[in-house]
Amino acid sequence: MFSPSVLKYVDKVSQIKLIGVTTCQQLVAVTSTFALMKAGLALGDQNSMSLWLGLALVCHVVVPFFGLIQRPLETALGFSAYKRFLEENLLSKAKRPGIWQEKHQKELFTSSIGSEAENYLAVIIFLGLDLFTFILSISLGVLVIGLTLDTSFIPAYIASGLFSFFAFKYFQKIAKSAAESEQQSRSKFESYLFKAWENIFFKNSEVVANYIKNFNSHLNDAKEKSRHSSLMSETMVAALTFIASLPVIVAVFVVISRHNGDVKVMAALLAAIPRQLNMLATFRTIFQTISSLVSFEAKLKTMKGNAVLSEPVLSSRISIKNITVQNDAFASLEDLSKSVSLSKPSRIQIRGSNGAGKSTLMLHLNESLESSFYIPAHPQFEFEDAEEGSTGQKMLRHIEYAASLDNKHLLLDEWDANLDQENILKINELLNRISKDKVIIEVRHR
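^ thats the sequence. predicted structure below, dont judge the formating
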């Protein structure tokens, strides 16, 4: 029912419920078709024909009400799938400081796990259910029409399915390649949008002009790749629809020639023609659905590939010979880490030249120390009132919050960056008080 790449995100209990409800819906729908044909075959028997017509109309009215159960289940299934997607691609990366340093990947990563990924998952789930519905509808319809009217329709539809399958295998690779190329260009464009802030909102004409130039280049590339992908998708749908229709059209004329003059069979055939046309239209819908599934699966695969972040070894980025701790040098990173871990409550300053890896060292200590809390220069941690007030007030609240927790070490990376003198004095006083109970390790901006 669902694409293999999405199946692992789908809640199995809800999936079974959806399959059950959809199966019941299609059984009611095919009962309507069966009743219409029986009404045609009962031509001349008014009572019998009226009963069959009444049953057909009742089933026709009941079918849409199944949607009241299906759609809420689909929506909930989509959100639960997105939660599992985020658990795999975002939350699984929690508490891994090395990833935090890969800021050059941030925009592409962020664009790949956002609302578009949620939309793709939801669409794939909806399309998966629709595909199951369409296939079940045609299967039941063919059986009922074939067994009630003429068995010629059964091999005709089987031939349609086989011809369509082999044609689809040919077109699928082309459509999938186009979809992957489209999503890659879209992701690049969306990640570029995240760079807009400093490039757009300052009055630096050359920078703005260069950004707009690159913006148009990325947008045009995404547009062209999307246009090509849509063309390949529709080409596949049109070709498959034509191939699937031929055996069924032949079967209709075979039945007409075989039962020429039989008024009841002709009446039943006419009653079934709307269903036949609907099934042919359903073939087209199936191909469109499969085309969309191929496209969205390829796009989701591309997004998942972009959501992968490398995790460098932090120690390889630290130049220990260019870093001092309280003006003391260390021969190795292990000696430095051991010294810090054994320190008593106090304020410890880390100094070093630009590019020595001071911030990376803080991340390394946060990873290696048994009990620590790390605060970057511009923290955005989740707790009450964390985002209210000036930059200095926010930093003050972040440090107060960290101090209230049961951590032995408090790691501060350039906490005084972009702060005025008044706030620096306030936080200094706070840190002096905290340092009586905790080890404060800080890299100072000034």
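The radius of gyration is 33 Å.
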